[in-house]
Specification:
single chain; alpha+beta; Structural Genomics Hypothetical 15.5 Kd Protein In mrcA-pckA Intergenic Region, Chain A; Alpha-Beta Plaits; Pseudouridine synthase; 4-stranded antiparallel sheet; 7 helices; 20% helix; 33% strand; globular
């Protein structure tokens, strides 16, 4: 049995949303079977449907660990003594409980392997991990100084008239609502963002595939910035167009971090060998 307390982020949300975010590898069949068998309680009371939950509610979940935490294989793209690069699947956080970092710690039987950056839960692709503190400090500094370039493929709705562009804007993060807002002009509380894109393919269903690079790594930057200029990512339930997502049959944003490029401008200590290396899917 697992006991969970509902946080502010899930106040007045559906039970299923909280459960699947807490246990990303739990199958939908197992969840609905548990509901039918009344194996999920809220504040000590059994529920027989996907009800609304509130901040402070206590959930008791009578599902065996093997079903709550089914084994997931790591897709390792690159590894050496200092770093690990993993191809992250959809529907799992990089950090937190039951995250990709948790899985890595279980596989490697150590908690010393730490992520150097993050991807959204439903964004797939390359995540860079450091295997020791010295490497972590170096890589965090390199990301801060824009000495590691990150490239993404994004399937967007619409076909940009400008085929290649470097766009700037300002982003505000609303932590309470877990959403960001974009402004073309500087405002109090907003941070500057820079996103570049290049149109790779154009399709008959009014979608296009973009190669995207971010010079600033802010929360939801690519998703919100592309939506702001009129080209939302297909499958994005937060910044996209739900009717389009449903029509095209995508449940998750079609955004993938496919390439990392190390462009060190200064001494990198034990990681000097990474300079000019490109790691891609």
């Amino acid at each position: 049995m697992k006991n969970l307390i509902v946080t502010n982020n899930y106040d007045k949300k559906k039970l299923s949303s909280f459960i699947f975010n807490s246990f990303p590898n739990l199958s939908r069949n197992t969840f609905f079977k548990a509901l039918r068998q009344k194996d999920i309680k809220i504040n000590g009371k059994r529920v027989n449907k996907d009800c609304t939950i509130f901040t402070g509610d206590e959930l008791s979940i009578y599902i065996v660990d093997s079903l709550l935490f089914p084994k997931m294989n790591l897709n390792i793209v690159y590894e050496d003594d200092n770093i690990l690069v993993v191809n992250k699947p959809v529907n799992i956080e990089v950090t937190g409980e039951n995250s990709l970092t948790t899985l890595i710690s279980q596989v490697y039987k150590t908690s010393n392997i730490m992520p150097c950056h993050r991807l959204d839960r439903n964004t797939t692709g390359l995540v860079l991990f450091a295997k020791n503190e010295q490497s972590l400090n170096i890589l965090l500094n390199k990301f801060k100084n824009h000495e590691i370039r990150k490239f993404y493929n994004a399937l967007v709705y619409g076909i940009p008239k400008i085929k290649k562009a470097r766009i700037e804007a300002y982003l505000f993060k609303d932590k309470k609502e877990s959403v960001v807002y974009i402004s073309d002009t500087s405002k109090k509380g907003y941070q500057k963002i820079v996103t570049s894109y290049n149109v790779l393919e154009e399709y008959d269903n009014n979608t296009s595939l973009l190669d995207v690079e971010i010079e600033t790594g802010k929360t939801h930057q690519i998703r919100a910035h592309l939506a702001h200029i009129g080209y939302p990512i297909v499958g994005d339930g937060k910044y996209g167009i739900n009717s389009v997502n449903k029509e095209l049959g995508f449940k998750f944003q079609q955004l993938c971090s496919y390439k990392l490029q190390f462009c060190f401008k200064s001494d990198s200590g034990i990681l000097n060998y990474l300079n000019n290396m490109i790691i891609h899917i």
